[in-house]
Amino acid sequence: MEYQHVLVERDGPVGLVTLNRPRVLNALSPALVAELSDALRGFDDDAEIGAVVLTGGPRVFAAGADIGDMADRSPVEQLQRDQTGRWAAIAAFSKPLIAAVNGYALGGGCELALMCDLIIAGDTARFGQPEINLGIIPGAGGTQRWPRTVGKYVAMEVTLGGAPLTAQRAHQLGLVNKVVPAEVTIGVARQVAAQLAEKAPVAVRLAKEAVNRALETPLSEGLAAERRSFYFLFATEDQKEGMRAFLEKRRAQFKGR
Ligand code: CAA
Questions:
Q1: Is there a contact between 28 and 109 (Cβ–Cβ < 8 Å)?
Q2: How much of the chain exceeds pLDDT 90, in percent?
Q3: Is 104 touching ligand 1 by the criterion CB < 6 Å?
Q4: CA 90 – ligand 1 centroid, Å
Q5: Closest CA to 116 of 44, 8, 208
Q6: Average of pLDDT values for 173-193?
Q7: Which atom, in ligand 1's list, is nearest to the CA of 134?
């Protein structure tokens, strides 16, 4: 697939996807989302890739779903295109996905960042759900992921009020892992991705799955699933290597097996 709306690069075990519609602040058109999903599927299938950074570049992450594309749609057209349902492919990405956010992450852009596993924010980042100002509500997970991340009251403030939060406030609330000067956001995210890409890939995948499961299941079910994955990992060569390397006081060489 040839991409028009995203740029895809690789740097050793780190993939980088850059949203690339700067003229409309990376508004998330269906074509862009399709390309993004395709690029992530490609990285998911690529055994050489251990982690991926998703960014909108130095100035903006994404100002939301493409309003021009949506303005005159009927509900049935929206249902048939299932525009936001198609984002499930992004949430299903099995490797660490790190958002590097500068400038606006609004509406669907914010929801996209919230689908990532870690968020590195530049000091210019602004996170918000302004859909209420358009007479709609978030449609790509905002009403569900905000309360699960920062609790009910901030989620209400953001979705009812529509005003964005600064990077610093998002960091205080635990929505963001790190706030850095905007000019180094992508570089820091790449470093974090490179560190994660060195870990045992099967363990990383199961750890991600287990943490995500915590947001969806009762504790007893989550604990049982965690235990099954924990025991399963003793079938991997990487578990033997990791523990042997510790005992032999050397660096482990993980192979993803
Ligand atoms: N869709 C389509 N075009 C968009 C856009 C969007 N979400 N956001 C910005 N643009 C376009 C603008 O129309 C403008 O295009 P023109 O130059 O052709 O006029 C260009 O990007 C630059 O934008 P502004 O001139 O508005 O830039 P600004 O710096 O003055 O303001 C902003 C920036 C505050 C982000 C403002 O653009 C804005 O409010 N954007 C819309 C944000 C929004 O409402 N997002 C939610 C969308 S709905 C959604 O996402 C639903 C969902 O849950 C999936």
A1: yes
A2: 92
A3: yes
A4: 22
A5: 208
A6: 98
A7: 44
Residue 62 C-alpha to ligand 1 middle, in angstroms? 9
Of ligand 1's atoms, which has the minimum distance to the CA of residue 133? Answer: 44
Span from the CA of 13 to the centroid of ligand 1 (angstroms): 34
Q: Which residue has the higher pLDDT, 89 or 116?
A: 116
Ligand 1 atom at minimal distance to the Cα of residue 130: 44
Q: What tens digit of pLDDT does each residue of 111-167 get?
A: 999 999 999 999 999 999 999 999 999 999 999 999 999 999 999 999 999 999 999
Alpha helices in 30-178 (DSSP H): 30-45, 67-70, 75-81, 88-91, 108-114, 142-150, 152-161, 167-172
Q: Could you write out the DSSP letters of every residue in 197-242? A: HTS-HHHHHHHHHHHHHHTTS-HHHHHHHHHHHHHHGGGSHHHHHH
Residue with token string 């033997």? 240
Residues contacting 179, CB < 8 A, separation 6+: 121, 122, 123, 125, 167, 168, 171
Q: Is the CB of 63 under 6 A from ligand 1?
A: yes
Instruction: Tell me the pLDDT of the chain averaged across its residues.
Output: 96
45 confidence band (pLDDT: 50, 70, 90): very high
In sequence order, the 6+-apart residues with CB closer than 8 A to the CB of 222 are 210, 213, 214
Q: Which of 20, 66, 67 to mutate to test the pocket of ligand 1 (most atoms within 8 A of CB)?
A: 67
